[in-house]
């Protein structure tokens, strides 16, 4: 994702650097749609993300394909000619392709103008208290069950309901600084979040009283949401292996009122079998897998900023080696992500819902991982749940069978950071029933051993 403007300039034969920057920024904003269109048109390989042939009959790299496709598909409707520099065979394959104008044009809304979302933390406060306090401080609630018009929010107003996330309030970006120091936020009653990052717990749907495993939990945003959902009779086991992040997780859970319903465990989630008793594993019915990822859904903003600021001036070979390294990094992340998801689908006999999420926009970390596991686990009773069927417009890439079942989120239509969610479900025969009364029993219970370095 390193942008080399000189190389791109030569490729596209664009005279003005500003025009080029604008083009690259547009490509970044519409990355999901462009990638999907190129895969569907047989230009990019769905699994590797690279051009399907390397014989000169298509642009040589993924980057060139994306930028040229952007130039071709997102140019003003009035221009009928093929833009200079676009490969004729690419133009041929994309003939007649239309990008969904809803997801491209609306993405003209700049990422830095994403609304400021805040989730009510029911562990510390009830919605009525939060609203009363906001009102006392001069904020005006706009009640609109459909979610209201985010773009017309004025400073000092907020949407009091969200169509997808319970307890989510939406403020205009202009109020970010005021909210950051507001006592409701500093006191923990309101959590500043991105809307998309609240989706995984909502898709997991643990009922009150459920036992939930949060495999990659720190710093605990989703753990807190899950703790509120399972209520006082439920339990959340929050696992993370990073020492610093684990400390932050524990600190936040205490500060935010999670109390006894969350148990923290510092270890590798792939080794949980060493730490949890079988009775405890039998009791877990809902699992969240939110593993480390490239974070590309969050960094699109800074990449775009970099592009607007002028970018780096590396040579063509630097750009190619950076692209190769990035490809390797994605492959290694995808391997780890698939291992954690595989373990969640294998090791917990009573598990009936497993949600997988990333804040990545790359199909390698998203649909490709989910598709691989969906294929391997179909004969073990696991199938994909169709998430938010009619209410969430942006779906997974249609080049993958699993795409329509999954959610993607982004700054365009959804007004969120880049995010991906999938959910596996299965009907269990109730093998966990015998363990109804088990506690989160740890095999290796000494704190010293739990905190050892792995
Ligand atoms: C994307 S972050 C999780 C964010 C978190 N779910 C939240 O909502 O705040 C991924 C986390 O996975 C942890 N992690 C990575 N590999 C792990 C492993 N093998 N076992 C447990 N945790 C791991 C990282 O330390 C990191 O904190």
Automatic annotation (TrEMBL):
UniProt entry keywords in alphabetical sequence: Methyltransferase, RNA-binding, S-adenosyl-L-methionine, Transferase
GO CC, one annotated term: nucleolus
Domain SAM-dependent MTase RsmB/NOP-type: 106-427
Superkingdom of origin organism: Eukaryota
InterPro entries linked: MeTrfase_RsmB-F_NOP2_cat, MeTrfase_RsmB-F_NOP2_dom, NSUN5_7_fdxn-like, RCMT, SAM-dependent_MTases_sf
Alphabetical GO biological process terms: rRNA base methylation
GO MF annotations in UniProt: RNA binding; RNA methyltransferase activity
Pfam families reported for this sequence: Methyltr_RsmB-F (PF01189), NSUN5_fdxn-like (PF21148)
CDD domains named among the record's database cross-references: AdoMet_MTases
Family, similarity comment: Belongs to the class I-like SAM-binding methyltransferase superfamily. RsmB/NOP family.
The name this protein goes by in its record: SAM_MT_RSMB_NOP domain-containing protein
Lineage: Eukaryota, Metazoa, Spiralia, Lophotrochozoa, Platyhelminthes
